[in-house]
Write a structure and sequence with these properties.
Blueprint: H1 2-29, H2 32-62, H3 75-110, E1 114-118, E2 124-127, H4 129-134, H5 139-142, H6 147-150, H7 154-162, E3 169-173, E4 178-187, E5 191-198, H8 200-236, H9 242-272, E6 281-283, H10 285-300, E7 305-310, E8 314-318, H11 320-336, E9 343-351, E10 354-361, H12 368-371, H13 383-388, H14 395-405, E11 409-415, E12 419-426, E13 431-433
Parallel strand pairs: 7-9
Antiparallel strand pairs: 1-2, 1-5, 3-4, 4-5, 6-8, 8-13, 9-10, 10-12, 11-12
Helix pairs in contact: 1-2, 8-9, 9-14, 10-11, 11-14
Bound molecules: adenosine-5'-diphosphate (ADP).
Length: 434
């Protein structure tokens, strides 16, 4: 640029010098008048030439292309040559950019999952076709609008607002009946990438399996009740010898265990179902705790020192039967895994906007390597102790599912031989105060 300016300055300088020279030569040979006329005439020609090239340049700017760029003369030759180089460079970068963008778009479309790019206000910037189909996004209308306005779902809104993207969430699209797993990740400075996976077929298989377990457990219940009934009648018979009585008592015990297992399996399949339960009841926690205290004192028979610190003003929306079941599960575990005279403390409080139910015991504790897995079905640290104390290995798995259905979570901390603490955390959206 500086060179072109310099060229312009020099060419103007030489032109003016030439004009002065012409003026003096002509005025000394002919007349002053003629010199003025010739100088003016050359000046006008000079200006007209520049106007012509400016006109050519403005024409070219209207529809720029490498082919129709004029060659120019004099100073204009340099200007057009420079323009040619810059324009060619720009075209090259543009082609490279377009190729990269095309490749990116093709890659985004080739991915099996849906992807949506959003900014810090969760406004949609771009998306691939799969995401558009899964979340009903219309690229013509919906870009630059917050994704939670386009796809209205309270779970998705809460997930995006909370910005805790370690875990994914599962949502159901009532429009297209799809079950979708959603996970967000931060990228670049303020942008987020939302991936969505269609879980519909997986859910179908899961539902088939759940239905099978549920039906099977249900079918087993009736014959088992009959067997238990007969065993009880036999046990009550007076004429029966000691050996047979012992065998019948053992059979009865096993039938009882089987019944408990079936009950837990049925409970688990109910808890896993998204539709069978009303999970928006206004639960009055005072009533739940009253029932729990009665049940616990019946189970424990004053073998442990149990203390309660319950804030009855904090109430939640949920399924009262499931919440009761989750709480009582933790308490029976604390009783079963804490030696006699041990201490159990139960609390219900609001901490950092969450409602937290906590059961802490001074029991046998759980070795750290097992902590991650104890909420899995049938996972037990000590199988014998679990069985002897009437466990099915399903309790914590039921609790975890109940918490999941209430958008909450279970947290466990434990130290071997010192005790364990189980926390059930309910999010602020579940809390109401009278
Ligand atoms: P179970 O019927 O075997 O108790 P759960 O699902 O309720 O099944 O618990 C899984 C396992 O977690 C138990 O077998 C036990 O090893 C461990 N566990 C649960 N609660 C406690 C506790 N309060 N203290 C120590 N271990 C516990």
């Amino acid at each position: 640029m500086a060179k072109t300016l310099q060229d312009i300055r020099w060419s103007t300088f030489w032109f003016l010098l030439l004009e002065i020279f012409i003026y003096f030569i002509i005025s000394s040979i002919f007349s002053q008048k003629l010199a003025v006329v010739i100088v003016l005439a050359t000046l006008i020609i000079f200006i007209l030439i520049h106007i012509y090239w400016i006109y050519k340049l403005s024409n070219w700017v209207e529809s720029p292309s490498l082919k129709n760029l004029p060659n120019g003369t004099g100073i204009w030759q340099n200007i057009f040559a420079k323009l040619y180089r810059t324009y060619r460079q720009q075209k090259k970068s543009q082609t490279q950019l377009t190729t990269t963008l095309d490749q990116f778009i093709q890659a985004a479309e080739a991915i099996n999952d849906g992807i949506v790019g959003v900014n810090e206000d969760n406004e949609i910037l771009w998306s691939n076709k799969k995401a558009q189909k899964m979340l009903n996004i219309n690229p013509k209308k919906d870009y630059n609008q917050p994704i939670n306005y386009i796809f209205r779902n309270s779970d998705l809104s809460n997930y995006l607002i909370k910005e805790n993207y370690e875990n994914s969430i599962n949502i159901h699209n009532t429009n297209n009946k799809l079950d979708i797993e959603i996970k967000a990740t931060f990228f670049s400075e303020n942008h987020k990438l939302i991936t969505c996976r269609d879980l519909t077929s997986l859910k179908k298989i899961q539902n088939l399996r759940k239905d099978f377990v549920s039906n099977f457990s249900h079918e087993l219940k009736t014959p088992l009740t009959v067997i238990s009934g007969f065993l009880e009648t036999l046990e009550d018979r007076k004429k029966i010898d000691v050996q047979s009585k012992k065998i019948i008592s053992l059979m009865s015990e096993q039938a009882h265990r089987m019944k408990k297992l079936i009950d837990d399996l049925l409970l688990l399949s109910n808890v896993e179902s998204d539709y069978l339960q009303n999970r928006s009841e206004k639960i009055i926690m005072r009533d739940i705790f009253k029932k729990i205290k009665n049940e616990v004192s019946f189970i424990d028979q004053q073998q442990h020192k149990i203390s309660y610190s319950l804030n009855n003003e904090i109430n939640i929306y949920g399924s009262s039967t499931e919440i009761y079941s989750a709480f009582i599960n933790l308490l029976t575990n604390a009783i079963r895994y804490t030696d006699k005279k041990g201490e159990i403390t139960v609390s219900w409080n609001k901490i950092n906007n969450d409602a937290i139910f906590q059961v802490a015991d001074t029991g046998i504790g759980i070795p750290e390597k097992h902590l991650k897995r104890i909420t899995e079905r049938f996972y037990r640290v000590d199988e014998d102790r679990s069985r002897e104390s009437g466990g099915t290995g399903l309790g914590l798995s039921i609790v975890k599912n109940i918490m999941h259905q209430h958008q909450g979570e279970i947290r466990v901390a434990s130290e071997i031989n010192s005790g364990s603490s189980f926390k059930l955390i309910f999010p602020s959206e579940r809390i109401y105060t009278k």
